[in-house]
Amino acid sequence: MNETIVCVVGNVATPPVYRELPTGPSARFRLAATARYWDREKNVWTDGHTNFFTVWANRQLAVNVTASVEVGQPVVVQGRLKVRTEVREGQQQWASADIDAVAVGHDLTRGTAVFHRAAKPEPPSTARPEPNWETPRSAAAPDVRDGEPAQPGTDTALVT
User: Fold this and answer.
1) What is the tens place of the pLDDT at every residue in 34-76?
2) 91 in any annotated domain
3) How would you classify residue 159: left for phi > 0, otherwise alpha for psi between -120 and 50, otherwise beta?
4) Secondary structure of the chain: what % helix, strand, coil (to 5)?
5) In-domain check, residue 29
6) Which of these, 38, 36, 20, 75, lies nearest to 53 by C-alpha position?
7) What is the pTM of this model?
8) Would you give the DSSP letter of residue 153?
């Protein structure tokens, strides 16, 4: 497959927006990634251009991102890059860079974090009840236990 996989380091620019969809949980947030370079003339680090990405997370990643990520925190995002351009009526053309996230984590070069394993999600409630697999007994066939006919009102299971 010809996909562009990227790893972007930046700061969370907007709070995660969580939605429950028919396909499962989904969350999105904006990520600001600013390039920094060493200015030799001034002898200081200088901020360059800032790129903004919309990060999309799905399923369990969406739940964990919503519970873990806050505005201003430094994060590392890995995922598939999707660049879209669109022209809306009466407006000029604009471009959007989205990342379909595979992994999101805090940037530990700029702080510390404590990891908590997420609880396993509950199984879907659409599970069907277990069918009754027992075959109904025929009234014509006598029940036999150890070679003797069964007495009325007793357990009729065969013992081996």
Assistant:
1) 998 898 998 999 989 999 999 999 999 999 999 999 999 999 9
2) yes
3) beta
4) 5, 45, 50
5) yes
6) 75
7) 0.68
8) T
Look up tokens 């370079």; give the residue: 37
Domain for residue 127, yes or no? no
Tell me how far apart the alpha carbons of residues 79 and 61 are, in angstroms, rounded to a whole number.
12
Domain tally for the chain?
1
Which residue range forms the structural domain that includes residue 30? Answer: 5-106
Question: Which CATH number does the domain housing residue 74 bear?
Answer: 2.40.50.140
How far is it, in rounded angstroms, from Cα 87 to Cα 29? 23
**What b/e sequence results for 53-82 when a residue is b if at least 16 CB atoms lie within 10 Å of its CB, and e otherwise?**
bbbbbbeebbbbbbebbeeeeebbbebeee
pLDDT in tens, 74-127: 999 999 999 988 887 888 888 889 999 999 999 999 999 888 887 776 666 666
The burial of 16, by beta-carbon neighbours within 10 Å (0-12 exposed, 13-18 middle, 19 or more buried), is given as buried
| Residue 99, in any domain of the structure | yes
What whole-number distance in Å separates Cα of residue 77 and Cα of residue 105?
Answer: 7
